[in-house]
Amino acid sequence: MLKLENLEISFATNRGSLHAVKGVSIEIAAGESIGIVGESGSGKTVLSRASMGLLAPTATRTGTVTFDGKEISSLSREEVRETWGTGMAMIFQDPMTALNPVRRVGSQIMEGLTVRLGMSKADARKRAIELLGRVRIPDPELALNKFPGQLSGGMRQRVMIAIALACNPKLLFADEPTTALDVTVQAQILQLLSELRKELNMSMVLVTHDLGVVAGHTDKIAVMYAGEVVEYATTKDLFARMRMPYTEALMKSIPRLSTPSGSRLPVIEGRLPDPTKPEPGCLFASRCPYAQEKCRTQHPDLTTDSDGHQYRCFFPLGAAH
Amino acid sequence: MLLPAWSRTLTTTIDGNTAHLRPADQTLLQIKDLVVEFDLGGGRIVKAVSNVSLDLVEGETLSIVGESGCGKSTLGKAILQLPAPTSGSIVFQGTDITKLKKKELRNVRPAMQMIFQDPVSSLDPRFPVSRAVEEPLKIWNRGNEAERSAKVDELLNSVGLDPALVRDRRPYEFSGGQCQRISIARALALEPKLLICDEPVSALDVSVQAQILNLLQDMKDAYGLTLIFISHDLAVVKAVSTRIMVMYLGKICEIATPDELYSRPLHHYTSALVGSVPVPDPERKVSATLLEGEPPSPLDPPSGCRFRTRCPAATELCATEEPMLRLAADGHYVACHHPRA
Amino acid sequence: MDSVKKSWVFRITIAWFTLIIFFAIFGPLLPLPKWDQVFDDALSVTPFKQGHILGTDSNGYDIFSGIIYGARISLFISFTAVFVGGTIGSAIGITAAYIRGKFDYVVSTLFNVVLSIPNLVLSLALIAVLATNVDPNVPTSTGRRIMVLVISLTIVIIPILGRIARAATLSWSNREFVLAARSMGSKDRNIIWRHIVPNVLPAIFAVAFLAIGVVIVAEASLSLLGAGVPDGTSWGSMVARGRNDIEFAPHIIIIPLVCIAFTVIACNYIGDVIRKQLDQRQAKL
């Protein structure tokens, strides 16, 4: 469905060239869902924008993005736009800014239907009501006439999902869809996305900073650090056998109910390397508790073990040295 | 005259939800029957906080947990009189601060500080870090220029920032986590007794959340603080709190120690909150206790128990009679007619 | 900012402002005919003829001198009206938005009422009230006319800038750093001066420059209606006086019109530059 090959993206800034995404190769099959996990600055958002052909003009890109057999970079702007909505759709972190505050929910959902699919007004209205029902909004006909400001954060995110689903996309990008929401609503939205994906046989890319969010809702996970994919495996395999020390550290830092009260939480010391100053060794070396001399001087390549689990580490966890 | 046992419970409950309060002379802060109302105009009045009582013993951390709109932030701000509550008393270090005049209240302010959710909007974009942290000292004319500057360096060091590197930079040059550290340094400048943290980590990456939570713990020990920690996420407050108070639509549902609350949530709402915490385990099945829908409008709260519209155990009694907070186990209070076993 | 400074539009704008401000200040010291000196032998002379750089009008007044003296009056009126109106409006708007409640309600209602009256109608009415003498046979002096004009235009400006100040203050005073300052025990006066005013000021400046343009045009329109400065002293009144000559001596009306247009465009451009700077700074946050 979507295939990223050796994708490199950099931005020209006044402090020099900023390498945001480095040599990323990821593949998503039809109906599959993948989680892209990383901290702010890991390049996860740039990666998802690039996959949708939404890069800023200041960005330079090498490598290929293939969607549905067509290479995105070879398409004209017009053709890229064609794929939005019907091919790929996106939902964002903050549904308040992603929705137009002065237009009714109904007209925002119907816009895609009438413009892209050429539906009549009456048909589009019917379909909008159906969509709102689909995203489990109680009383869809009433919701149709509301303005985004009259809805709660969770309801707005549901409306965003309804808009994204309007033209039956094959692939849904969800960029931190629950970060701005309460945990109770987050659980509902994640549940909804999972159910919709199965019902509509859609592929999904779930971009987040929280490993806890992707655990129950994705088939594969790519962990990104400083623009690189540092671990890439099936969700089951990743959680069962973490190979990359960074993933382990990220996992440990999640606040949990099982943390004994009064205890200190494990943290990842230090911070992301400066993306404008390339380092020779492993990018995580300065923060890694297991780092050795080799890690500081040589850059590890992505290694694939026998069951397809990929990691970027000289001394992976669980291996004997 | 000796009253029968049932009438005693009745009098305490009619008295309001104060069963969980400890003797006033042991507390740093005691809040009784606090009500905060907002006038939306057109005769519509929202009761954001209704008759909440709580207390804090010096050195403890009370966490207030609930969904958006439950009144937890409003409660936190009302304690600081920002804005002042509609009714109720707030006794801080022996004085009821709701009754103070403007000037007297101002003198109490340094002892109570607050940290906010949005790390970027907490700092004036025009002020370099050193000036932001120095501001409270300037307001109170503490020390001379050199002393203040030394104090700023000390504060920045203690929150894990290198003064030499950050002093002259402006907020937009920092990440959310770093801005939050600056806010903490600023709040500590006046050496407060009570620090109210309003969702201090919910705008941050998971990996940074733990750093800030640890920092707050360290600061609590180093500066002898008493903390109120407001959050929508039970997992976040687990490690840091002494007591946790769960709120729903302006009312208290349950109060307990963290371990007690997680192992034995008595209120159905608390149990749903526990069930919504994302767990990094792909094998875990989705919790059956996942909450349906969203809280009803605080403009028109349900009669009786406010949670009954979403509660799996609701009965007729819940619609007619409001459940009062009562003791369920040692230090564990719940406001529910049909608590979970 | 650097890229803006390099642009030629910016340079022209700055050059134009420098030029008219220079003439407005030093005009009377230059070896030029007086603005009200009548050249009986040179009526409606086209530019660069008979020693008149920009020609003369049908009354024999030197247009170049008129423009220079007019710059004084036009700029004095507009800058004063915007400065005074802006200061008063901002003070009211910021205070209202900061303290909210009834005062804010009264202020914003008043602003809306004043804004609902068309600018020209309002200033005409004010001039009619303020500039009329008790004895209709005594004409009002030029000085008084100018004062009345400034006052009436100031009243027009107050709600325009006051509303901007109010809106900006509302958004800034909701920021958490303002709440933090209050929780630290900062006095309201200090919060307004240290945190609100400096953040609100750029927005006010951006609109104030647009307002200068509006006032210059308003003053010209009032002159056309006969309610402006007495004959031949502002750009607007030069246009008013020359409007009958448009067919045979169009330069009489075109020259002051061009001056008005250039100045208005320049003001709008400066306002735009300030606004863009403001947007960029906010985008960085």
List keywords for this structure.
heterotrimer, A: four-stranded antiparallel sheet, 12 strands, globular, C: mainly alpha, MetI-like fold, 10 helices
Note down, in words, how this protein is organized.
The complex is a heterotrimer of chains A (321), B (341) and C (285). Chain A is of the alpha/beta class and 321 residues long. Chain A has twelve helices and twelve strands. In chain A, helix 4 packs across helix 5, helix 5 crosses helix 7 and helix 7 packs parallel to helix 8. In chain A, strand 1 and strand 2 form a beta hairpin. In chain A, the strands form two sheets. An eight-stranded mixed β-sheet of chain A has the order 6-7-8-3-9-10-12-11, with helices on both faces. Chain A starts with a strand and ends in a 10-residue tail after the last strand. With 341 residues, chain B is α/β, with parallel strands linked by helices. In chain B, the strands form two sheets. Chain B has an eight-stranded mixed β-sheet, with helices on both faces. A four-stranded antiparallel β-sheet of chain B has the order 2-1-4-5. In chain B, strand 4 and strand 5 form a beta hairpin. The longest helix of chain B is centred in the middle third of the chain and has 18 residues. Chain B is globular and about 65 Å long. The two termini of chain B are 35 Å apart. The N terminus of chain B is likely disordered. The longest helix of chain C has 37 residues. Chain C contains ten helices and no strands. Chain C is globular, with a radius of gyration of 22 Å. Chains in contact: A-B, B-C. The interface between A and B is large, with 45 and 48 residues.
